[in-house]
What we know:
The protein has 294 residues and is of the alpha/beta class. It contains 12 helices and 11 strands. The chain has helices at residues 2-15, 63-73, 90-97, 103-112, 133-136, 149-155, 199-209, 225-232, 236-246, 250-258, 263-272, 285-292; strands spanning 25-29, 37-42, 48-52, 55-56, 86-87, 119-122, 140-145, 158-159, 167-171, 184-190, 210-219. The strands form 3 sheets. It has a 5-stranded parallel beta sheet, with helices on both faces. A 4-stranded antiparallel beta sheet has the order 1-2-3-4, with no helix packed on it. A two-stranded parallel ribbon has the order 5-8. Strand 10, helix 7 (199-209) and strand 11 (210-219) form a beta-alpha-beta unit. The radius of gyration is 19 Å and the shape is globular. It starts with a helix and ends with a helix.
Amino acid sequence: TAVANQTCGKCLSDLLVCPKCREPFFGDATGDRVSAPLKLRCVHCSRTFEGVDGSFDFTDLNERQRREQTYYDERYDLDGRFAALRPFDHREWSRRWHDPHWPECQILLRRLGHIAGKVILCLGNGSSVKELYFLHLGACLIHSDLSLYGPLQARHEYDLSPFGGRAAFHAIDAYAIPLANDCVDVLYGFEFVHHLSDLPRFVDEARRVLKPGGMCIFVDHGHSGIWQRAKMTLFWPLMKLSHYVQGISPEDLRATYAGGYREETLARLAEEHGFPRAFFERTTFFHYLLSTGV
């Protein structure tokens, strides 16, 4: 309902805090809604965060993170940001999420369960729009990335007015999330966690913003010894050619050399940082064949 949408939108704004001192903001918005720059100023430390159309860059990055952000700033295309918005067809997105060619999407939906009325924080989401389907399922969505340009591109892809204020789009550093303690039901990331060089630090921050009983759910690369050896030897020339032609971010390159995550590592990390349970489900080539009935 319209009332529910307005209430949820207000809640999303109320969740924001300064990522440095974690005090609330007061806003100073000028000019027209679409093109004018906006500012949020922290009540306590007076830090100011710039933004566009209600979307803000809350990052305060070190040199390493800045290189990663710059890489993605240059990749996202905002040329069509003011073009006519496409209507959001939930049937199209339902088909995508239940497509047997993408079994990991079905795994995600099963793990998420009933999300109506829940707050979902998508980290490292870039310009991906498939997560907008969560709005149709009744969730409140905070779409974020290290680069503000990715969320802005996603925001201006579809007409989201039917969802009222249940969506927000910001640049967020996963190590310093600008949200209050215990306010998020789900932290979600699709091929995102491997961009983080300090996973324990991130898990601590995730634990801070999650509500009691909240859930982290991530899709990322699992370790495969055979594949790791193959790409570092037999397929090395092809891998380097791909990096040259398509480009690769600094953190993606680091993760490529390091390999994927191991189940025992993630289980130990969850236990050490106060998560009561850890699930690990691997989607393999054979899983794909079984899922598609081949």
